[in-house]
């Protein structure tokens, strides 16, 4: 290897790097993980997934990134035969232009190389290794003489073709924005280290060092003082620095962090990194930056870095994380939103962000030795991250919402960061199982496996026997080469200690003793930072038997999470569950209601979804449905057919509504339809009368209808429609429009139409045309319009938007109401009584002392009182209604008197 150690300008960094091995990334942390290369899964949960990544995902990823590989070929001016065939060959000739969409596409090749390198550790494959060597040869030839490696610019310069608009005319010109020149190199550095560790080869490592030398000569204080627009190069430089023992790269990584400040919040450049205490902006950029800060803090002892990320971690876990471990609520910035803003159907939860969250929490654990970080890691691992890939290994999710009207996994993406990222994540999972220092071994995750580590003065072999995560019985067998005394720290997961995450963002509805036992002894209060310690002299064959009870648990949210009001979700062990329509065709899973104390039952199904634990829960109308609702693990969703899916189950009670409201009753055959509904939104939301009414047009609550469709919904008439099982006379419409402050807003124009059975067409309803220009379409209220009654079983709300798509929180239609009838009575009435209010009493006196039939209604049309009186009635106002309006109707034969009382 033609690498040498160069004396760094910062002596302390140099001293930290002396003598570090290739696996030394974590050597400055109080704990070191057992490398994934030393842990072999033998279980029925993770091992098949690693095998699928090796057998299906990696070859599939290479086949889907041929155009990206061709960019390197074009930059290198090579013929197609320069890369050997693997899982099918690509046959495209030189044309002197880029072959893919985005300047960051180079990074996908580097991530697949890294993924393949990790997979080679568990599944040696000479053909794959040769294929990697052929790709690395092309990458090396695409690199410019001074180390610059960025195919989009190299191709443009060599062939005098147009530059992509993100690039700028000169190198590094837009590096703080969208060029991704440094981002790509960060992934090159990580791939080079991973490939070197897997194969011992230095061919990719030499390319990485050449590029890193160029960066060191170009960037820094007194040089080009710019930061990366997308963080990644920092953690790549740190890995490279430790691999080749060159402190210059560590110094440069720290510069890229310290150069931030005075820039956009989107890329966390709004403040110096040491002054940031809140998670903001693009979530993947953010986690990659926090990872680099953790590494720098560990390597340099820089307290202000650690203090900043400690505060940021609390902000995420206490206010901004989903129950799946996903982060990044907003699709607009692909990142963090305001505290407690965690909507379900529009949740972004990018797969890459979950992966970044895993990396970040692992570093935090190595620093602090507390199980709360592994709790977050495990939740993200089994739910938010694993949801991103299909069971077949060749279909993917980019965002991972917690409620959908039906979402299909994608074969690939134009921006394919998530598939390539998950391909390198899963093979590395064995490396999160264990960590140690000189006299303590931490057991973090549970899976049937075998591991080997050099511990103290001896080598220790550890065997786990377990059916985790479906079963809570785990046996550890320790086999030290020579008897040794050390402490074994066994993590007791938060879910086994009545704690979802640290803080109160989520909590278990029922808290009880889960009876965790180790070697038959209850762990009780003997934990140290979430770990049960066992200190003893260990000999070959010593066993530790762990028993975690795994009851079905109901989880509720903090009140500030508006979208989860009167909702709960189900978790068993580390697995979060959801309801899918394919399992529950007798009902709409998006509108089904439950009781908070509903009965649940768990059972394992070997045939379903490759073998999963299934949970059945009784719905509120169990007697009518005559069947339980089946729940499956969230990670296994969308592996069969397109159908609705929901994580947070509702136990809401219906709001008090006027009797004239036409209820959309799915059990009778009523339903809604539309010309287009976004897959991540819910058409069922518009007739959901459960829970609180909307408080503003921007307050989505739990779900909403939206018809965003990549611009296809803009500039034309769209519609939603109710189809009723019988004919109604309809005279009033109320619609509460939704504005998501992104691609959805209120319409410019609307009108109503009804189905004319005789004409077999939809007919516009007179006097229902409304426009924003007229001021008849308004934010933050129910837009109400009344009209001459129409008789129909179908009514349609038509809307037009010239700039954006439209959204609806609720749409109600009404028959001619009792209130309308009472209003008519008020016009043609006799005077039969007087009414006055005295404190909390409405006093009614009949004028002629004849028997009078009295009825009292609220403005919703609900009857509050009725009876015959002869002279006087004292009606006590409810404390629940301290102010409002009552309508009092009195009748004597054909004479009627109606009066309104305001209180």
From TrEMBL:
Domain Non-reducing end beta-L-arabinofuranosidase-like GH127 C-terminal span(s) in chain numbering: 552-649
InterPro entries, sorted: 6-hairpin_glycosidase_sf, Beta-AFase-like, Beta-AFase-like_GH127_C, Beta-AFase-like_GH127_cat, Beta-AFase-like_GH127_middle, Secre_tail
Keywords: Signal
Keyword rRNA processing included in the entry's annotation: no
Pfam family, one: Glyco_hydro127M
GO biological process, one term: carbohydrate metabolic process
Coiled-coil stretches noted in the UniProt entry, renumbered to this chain: none
UniProt keyword annotation of Signal present: yes
Domain Non-reducing end beta-L-arabinofuranosidase-like GH127 catalytic: 38-430
Range of residues in the leader sequence: 1-24
Domain Non-reducing end beta-L-arabinofuranosidase-like GH127 middle: 440-550
Protein name per the record: Uncharacterized protein
Organism: Mariniphaga anaerophila
Taxonomic placement: Bacteria, Pseudomonadati, Bacteroidota, Bacteroidia, Marinilabiliales
């Amino acid at each position: 290897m033609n690498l040498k150690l160069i004396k760094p300008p910062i002596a302390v960094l140099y001293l930290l790097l002396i003598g570090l091995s290739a696996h030394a990334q974590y050597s400055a942390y109080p704990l070191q993980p057992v490398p994934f290369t030393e842990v072999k899964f033998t279980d029925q949960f993770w091992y098949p997934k690693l095998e699928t990544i090796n057998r299906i995902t990696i070859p599939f990823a290479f086949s889907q990134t041929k155009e990206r590989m061709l960019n390197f070929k074009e930059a290198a001016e090579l013929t197609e035969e320069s890369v050997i065939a693997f899982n099918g060959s690509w046959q495209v000739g030189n044309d002197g232009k880029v072959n893919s969409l985005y300047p960051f596409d180079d990074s996908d090749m580097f991530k697949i190389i890294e993924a393949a390198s990790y997979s080679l550790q568990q599944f040696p494959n000479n053909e794959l290794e040769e294929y990697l060597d052929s790709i690395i040869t092309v990458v090396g030839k695409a690199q410019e003489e001074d180390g610059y490696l960025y195919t989009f610019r190299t191709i443009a310069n060599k062939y005098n073709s147009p530059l992509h608009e993100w690039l700028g005319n000169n190198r590094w010109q837009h590096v703080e924005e969208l060029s991704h020149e440094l981002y790509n190199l960060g992934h090159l550095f990580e791939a080079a280290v991973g490939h070197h560790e897997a194969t011992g080869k230095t061919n990719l490592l030499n390319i990485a060092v050449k590029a890193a030398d160029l960066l060191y000569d170009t960037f820094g204080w007194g040089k080009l003082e710019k930061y990366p627009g997308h963080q990644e190069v920092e953690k790549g430089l740190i890995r490279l620095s430790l691999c080749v023992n060159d402190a210059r790269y560590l110094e440069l990584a720290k510069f890229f962090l310290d150069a931030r400040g005075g820039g956009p919040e989107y890329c966390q450049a709004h403040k110096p990194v040491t002054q940031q205490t809140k998670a903001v902006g693009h979530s993947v950029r953010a986690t990659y930056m926090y990872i680099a800060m953790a590494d720098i803090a560990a390597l340099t002892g820089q307290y202000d870095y650690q203090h900043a990320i400690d505060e940021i971690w609390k902000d995420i876990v206490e206010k901004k994380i989903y129950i799946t471990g996903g982060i990044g609520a907003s699709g607009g910035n692909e990142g963090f939103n305001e505290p407690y803003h965690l909507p379900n159907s529009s949740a972004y939860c990018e797969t890459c962000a979950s992966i970044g969250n895993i990396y970040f929490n692992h570093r935090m654990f190595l620093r602090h030795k507390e199980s709360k970080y592994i709790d977050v890691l495990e939740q993200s691992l089994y739910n938010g991250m694993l949801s991103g890939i299909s069971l077949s290994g060749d279909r993917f999710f980019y965002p991972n919402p917690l409620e959908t009207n039906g979402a299909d996994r994608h074969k690939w993406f134009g921006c394919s960061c998530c598939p390539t990222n998950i391909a390198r994540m899963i093979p590395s999972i064995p490396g999160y199982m264990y960590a140690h220092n000189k006299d303590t071994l931490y057991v973090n995750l549970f899976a049937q496996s075998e591991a080997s580590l050099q511990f103290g003065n001896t080598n220790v072999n550890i065997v786990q026997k377990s059916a985790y995560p479906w079963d809570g019985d785990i046996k550890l067998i320790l086999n030290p080469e020579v008897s040794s005394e050390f402490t074994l720290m066994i993590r007791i997961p938060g879910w086994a200690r009545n704690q979802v995450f640290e803080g109160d963002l989520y909590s278990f509805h029922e808290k009880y003793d889960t009876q965790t036992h180790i070697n038959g002894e209850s762990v009780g209060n003997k934990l140290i930072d979430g770990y049960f310690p066992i200190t003893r002299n260990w000999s070959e064959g010593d066993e530790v038997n762990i028993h975690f009870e795994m009851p079905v648990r109901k989880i509720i949210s903090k009140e500030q999470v508006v979208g989860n009001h009167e909702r709960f979700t189900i978790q068993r062990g580390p697995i979060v569950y959801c309801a899918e329509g394919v399992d529950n065709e007798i009902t709409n899973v998006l509108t089904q209601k439950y009781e908070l104390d509903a009965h649940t039952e768990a059972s394992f199904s070997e045939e379903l979804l490759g073998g999963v634990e299934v949970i059945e829960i009784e719905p509120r109308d169990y007697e009518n449905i005559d069947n339980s609702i089946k729940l499956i693990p969230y990670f296994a969703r969308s592996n069969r057919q397109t159908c609705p899916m929901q994580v947070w189950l509702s136990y809401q009670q219906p709001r008090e509504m006027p009797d004239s409201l036409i209820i959309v009753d799915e059990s009778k055959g009523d339903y809604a339809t539309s010309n287009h509904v976004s897959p991540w939104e819910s058409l069922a939301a518009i007739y959901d009368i459960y829970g609180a009414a909307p408080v503003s047009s921007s307050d989505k609550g739990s779900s909403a209808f939206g018809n965003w469709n990549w611009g296809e919904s803009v500039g034309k008439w769209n519609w939603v429609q109710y189809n009723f099982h019988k004919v109604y006379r309809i005279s009033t419409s109320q619609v509460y429009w939704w504005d998501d402050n992104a691609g959805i807003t209120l319409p410019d124009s609307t009108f109503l139409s009804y189905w004319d059975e005789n004409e077999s067409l939809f007919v516009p309803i007179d006097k229902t045309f409304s426009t924003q220009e007229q001021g008849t379409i308004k934010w933050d209220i129910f837009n109400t319009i009344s009209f001459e009654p129409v008789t129909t079983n179908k009514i349609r709300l038509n809307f037009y938007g010239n700039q954006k798509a439209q959204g609806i929180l609720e749409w109600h239609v009404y028959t001619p109401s009792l209130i309308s009838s009472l209003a008519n009575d008020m016009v043609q009435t006799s005077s039969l009584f007087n009414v006055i209010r005295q404190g909390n009493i409405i006093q009614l006196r009949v004028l002629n002392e004849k028997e009078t039939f009295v009825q009292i209604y609220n403005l919703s049309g609900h009857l509050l009182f009725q009876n015959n009186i002869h002279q006087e009635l004292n009606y006590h106002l409810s404390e629940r209604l301290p102010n409002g309006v009552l309508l009092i109707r009195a009748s004597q034969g054909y004479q009627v008197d109606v009066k309104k009382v305001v209180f």
